[in-house]
Amino acid sequence: MSAAELGRAGEQLAATYLERCGFMVLERNVHLRTGEIDIVALEGSTLTFIEVKTRRTLVTGVPQAAVTPTKLRRLRTLVGTYLMDSSPPHRDIRIDVVAVLAHADGTYAIEHLRGVC
């Protein structure tokens, strides 16, 4: 499985996980001028922007470690752009990270970090 395929599989697993947790997935792979938001979802009345990180091994660290302060700044900018362009009717917003670790035996582990910034 290529890195791109692994990323797509991780995003699908994350979307399924979020739906099972009661989120309503509104959009996936939202392309904006300066980047992409992996998942936009509603949890109750909170509009949630979710960054998905998927890894096969822990050689380079846990998946969520890839969400660096620089990446968080970029995500905040993307969320601002999304809000300006879309003007959604939600007052509460949040940025989450879903980390997916794909094991060689086909199983996976998911960790959901809420309100990372």
TrEMBL record:
Gene Ontology molecular function, alphabetical: nucleic acid binding
Record's signal peptide: none
Pfam families (UniProt xref): UPF0102 (PF02021)
Highest taxon listed in the record's lineage: Bacteria
NCBIfam families: PRK12497.3-3 (NF009154)
Family membership: Belongs to the UPF0102 family.
Protein name from the UniProt record: UPF0102 protein D641_0105510
Taxon lineage: Bacteria, Bacillati, Actinomycetota, Actinomycetes, Micrococcales
